[in-house]
Amino acid sequence: MKTLSKFRYLTGLIALAFILLTNPTNATDKKSSSRNKKASSSEDKRVQDYKRKIADINQRVAAAQKALGQAAADYKAQVARKEKELKGLSDQYREKAASTKKAVGELRKDQAELGEALEKYQKALKEKQEADAKRASDAKR
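Given the sequence above, the corresponding structure tokens read:
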């Protein structure tokens, strides 16, 4: 987006410079042919100077357009690279999320199995303690 606005700004400036350089030649009234050769020679010099400036501006416009084209191509290439990189990162994230989800599922399964084993052990321990306590109380009698 910045490149496009820079291009518009640059072309606007170039167009303005072109208009300003060409208008003075269009605005001057024609010299009468009764003037001497030196006057027409200086006029020719002025016309040549304007033509040279116009050619210079045209070269600058061409260079600016070429630079703009190159900048646009570079921008598109960089966007393509970044999109490819982003896609790769997205794929990596999905793979990591899937493996993490699988690991969490396995850990929860292990947790449930351990919880069941703990309950069994606590129940057996309680029964053993109650049996030991009953034997101890029976032995005291």
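Residues 2-24+39-106 form one domain. Try to locate this feature in the token string yourself.
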